[in-house]
What does this fold into?
Amino acid sequence: MRKVLIGVWGILQGVIGTIWNLFALLFILHPGSAPGTKEWEEDAMFIPVGYMMLILWLVVMFLSYYKLRKRKNHVIVFTVAWLVSMIISILGIQMMK
It folds into this structure.
């Protein structure tokens, strides 16, 4: 039962984390405006928000692995579930285009 819950946590982390990181990258890179334009200056205030989002995601991932460090099987289940759900999320986003 515990491995199932760890797998669910990995899936949630993969799906939500992927979407979270894509939004963070959009805040950092703001791909709809060119440097030197007024839109660029307005969007530049969101750059720190994007970096904070990425740092928060890294902290959550670190804490997840720290909590699971005692058993190698739990780390493997979490990592596999996380990677599979992340790949499926990215493929799903690509299919929406």
Notes: The chain has a mean pLDDT of 87. Helices lie at 2-29, 38-43, 47-68, 72-96. DSSP finds four helices and no strands in the chain.
